[in-house]
Amino acid sequence: MNPILLALKSLGGSGTIEEINNKASEIAGLSDEQIEVLHNPEKGGQTKVEYRLAWARTYLKNYGVIENSSRGVWALTAEGRKLDSVDSKKVRQFTQEQLKKAKIRSVKDEPDEANPDNALTVIKDVPDETEPDISWREELLDTLLKMEPSAFERLAQRLLRESGFTQVEVTGQSSDGGIDGKGIMRLGGLLSFHVIFQCKRYQGSVTASQVRDFRGAMVGRADKALLITTGNYTKDAMKEATRDGAPAIDLIDGNQLVDKLKELGLGVKTEKVEVEEITINHNWFMNI
């Protein structure tokens, strides 16, 4: 359990199962021979390490220190970010007590062969109430603007991971030409593109000169570049992003950003009864 917590901290607070497993194995000091041991050679290629880490993630999720999305990305919760370690016995005991209270079968010392990451959990995220006179888009953009710059960069990192990027890192170095992070986008499991991204968390418009500056930081470092803002882009900026003879810059403005967060369910809860009801979880964004 503790290598998973340390792995997530090392990865910037969130990661795919592959990233977490690799980093946790490294932190635990496991040898290649140990990592390659199969859990059940007769029933597939899952290793014993992968099997144990899967159940450890489930326990930690029930304990409220990590969470996961439907797309397989796991992340530290606000409580999890406060911890450097947990008492594994207490975590197991807490989970078993919660399951018993919910009248669900107790988790065994050796669970069955069902996918551990799909195990039923009892911790639920309760969103805050929203003001009825503010549209969900305005409310969400207002929440994003209140985030710390580093938190907004972590949100961008999580967004890219949820969208299929791997090895996503936040650099946040002011001397690095405006590059806030980088990652790899894999297309169809065959092709990969190295991508850098920049985050601009403000209400104004991104100008053509800012796009050109970012392109200058991209040359020689990545195949693609992604510019994310809570604001919008001037017409000249949009033209500059796709100017003939220059590497294209992909742009995401505030409206596209909130739509993507809603689509991925990141801090946004959508319920459909007779009409679609959208709730913004402000605390989720403040504690990412």
UniProtKB/TrEMBL annotation:
Keyword Cell cycle assigned: no
Domain Restriction system protein Mrr-like N-terminal residue range list: 1-83
Spans traversing the lipid bilayer: none
Biological processes per GO annotation: DNA restriction-modification system
One GO MF term: DNA binding
Every Restriction endonuclease type IV Mrr domain range: 145-259
Swiss-Prot/TrEMBL keywords: Endonuclease, Hydrolase, Nuclease
PANTHER family: MRR RESTRICTION SYSTEM PROTEIN, TYPE IV METHYL-DIRECTED RESTRICTION ENZYME ECOKMRR
UniProt name for this protein: Restriction endonuclease
Organism this protein belongs to: Desulfonema magnum
